[in-house]
Structures are given as structure tokens and as C-alpha cells.
Amino acid sequence: MALISLHSNPLLLQFMLLIFFVLGNRLHASDPPLTLDYYASTCPTVLEIVKKEMECAVLADPRNAALIVRLHFHDCFVQGCDGSILLDDTVTLQGEKKASPNINSLKGFGIIDRIKNKLESECPGIVSCADILTIAARDAVILVGGPYWHVPLGRKDSVTAGYALANTNIPTPDEGLLSIISKFLYQGLSVTDMVALAGAHTIGVARCASFRSRIYGDLKATSGHDPITDSHLSDLKSICSPIGGSDNNISAMDYVTPNLFDNSFYHILLKGEGLLNSDQEMYSSVYAMGTRELVSKYAEDAIAFFQQFSDSMTKMGNITNSDSFITGEVRRNCRFVNT
């Protein structure tokens, strides 16, 4: 078995140095002070209220499920799961909503507002927005056919936001595999977590601006020039022109079962048809030795995918902002720090 020389592969050497850095400086998805019965005495109806509101939202539009899961992901990757993604800009605070990965990507804030209003009527000043978003993401997945997982509670809402961190911590659609892996490691999440959490793309849509480079780039090559793929690619190009003007047009990331949480996303990657470069990299990149095996595993075994997705979502949801437990609060309005 030939050994890979780090000196002859400067990109790999750079990646290894990056790994040592992130392992020494990462956040921790470990054992936060969260409990399953945190609101048992102070707001016993919290889970039922969130569930009912999410049922209404997903019934109105199944795509709302993906919006809430994406909000949760973007929240947890900046300062931990502290509700900072929900904060609007004010004179004294720059929120994260206008950061490059978020500005045209995130919706669903009104759903969280409605849940918060219900809970403030039932249990004023008790349930944090960070907890609401975490519960809502779990319920969103269940409502479109995905797995259940327990959600430990007790997060506090931050009084700060991380605009700069949002621009650096959140993976982007055209990012390379090694860079994305480093961002997950920084959060205390493994490569296995990364591949499983990417499976959330089995629901939801992407903007033309996010997949333009893919459909006018190597999608034809990674898919092996399959006639069915060629037809699908032609459809994609009809809604996404090679230059400007159609940036906000959308396409499902899983065109087979776009509103059902299943393992179809991984089958699409096996065929080389991933809509986003960042997704297809997990199977087609020259650095995808470990991730390719996981993609194949989850394509073959939906139960294994569901189990790992549940575990990884729990782990991600447990990334906490330690400062929020000292300086944090329970916001009365998720969009603004209490005054």
C-alpha cells in the first residue's frame, strides 16, 4: 500500500495543519447543562404548543419544514444554539440575517414568532427562543416523514449576534470538501455527522445563484452523461440562466421526493446528480475516501441514516454558547434583546 507524502501534496498538508488548529480551538458539542424535563413545572405544555404550530405551518406548505431545519443549523454554527440567528438589526446590534450565507437563504422567522407568541401567552418569560427553534426543527423533520429524537432543553437566548462568524463558520454551496469538514470539526462535529446532517437536503430548495456553477460546470461529468440526467439538467438550465437575472429561481435539492424526508438525497449523489457542489463533493471529490463510503451506506440503509441523523441533530443541538448561560436571557420577542 503506497504511502501519501505530505510534502508532495501541499493541499493535504495544509488540511492536516488546519485539523490540528480546529481541534485545539473548536467549540464543543458535548455535555451542556440541558435536561429533557427543563420546563416540566414551569411550562408543561411547551412541546404540545410547538408541535401544533409546526403542524399548521407544514400543512400550509411542506417546504416550511426545511426552512426551520435550515434556521436551526445556521443558528448552531454561529455562537452555538443560542437564538442569535433570530435577532434583527438595530442601532446597537448587527444581527446575522444579512451575513452572506444568510441574506438570501433564510426564511421561516414568522413561524418562530407565532410559536413564541403562543408560548408567551401560556408561559410568559419562560421558554427561550433558542429552545423553541431546536424543538421546532425536530418536529419539522417528523412532520415530513423523518425520525424522532429527544431534545434536551434549557438554552438561553444570547444578547449578542455573530455577523462576522456567520460569514466564516457556515459552509457555502460551492465550498470544497476539506474546508467543509474543517468547519464541522470546529463545531465538535465529526465527518459522520457532516454526511448525515447533509441528508437534511432531502427536503427544501436551493436558489439558482447557489447551483449555477454546478449545472454549468461538472454536473454532466459526475453524472456520466446519463440521458435522464441530461433531461433533468436541461430543466435546471431553463430556470437558471448562465448569467444573472434568475438568481432567485429555485429548484428542489431532492427532485425525486422533495417534500418527503427519506434517503433519496444519497441516491442522487450516487448518480452524480447532486444539485450543490458542496453535496456532490462528498461522493465525487478526490478527497472523499471516507465520505463516499458513508453516502453509499445511507443510500442503501435508510434506517442507518435516520439513526445517525437523529444522533447528529442531537449533538448539533447541544452546541451551546457558554456566555449565554451567564449573560443570556429569555427574550420576550425573538427578534430583539430584552430592554
Q: Topology of this structure?
A:
Layout: H1 10-25, H2 46-60, H3 63-76, H4 109-122, H5 129-143, H6 163-169, H7 177-186, H8 191-198, E1 205-207, H9 208-215, H10 219-222, H11 227-239, E2 250-252, H12 264-270, H13 277-284, H14 289-300, H15 302-317, H16 324-327
Antiparallel strand pairs: 1-2
Helix pairs in contact: 1-7, 2-4, 2-5, 3-5, 8-14, 8-15, 12-14, 14-15
GO biological process, one term: response to oxidative stress
Cofactor: Ca(2+); heme b
GO molecular function: heme binding; lactoperoxidase activity; metal ion binding
Mean pLDDT: 91
Strand content: under 5%
Count up the helices. 16
What is the element string, with H for helices and E for strands? HHHHHHHHEHHHEHHHHH
Count the strands? Answer: 2
Q: How do the strands line up in the largest sheet?
A: 1-2
Shape: globular
Q: What is the CA-based Rg, rounded?
A: 20 Å
Q: What can be said about the biggest beta sheet?
A: 2 strands, antiparallel
Helix content, binned percent: 40-55%
Q: Give the helix/strand class.
A: mainly alpha
What is the terminal-to-terminal distance? 64 Å
Unreliable spans = 1-7, 20-28
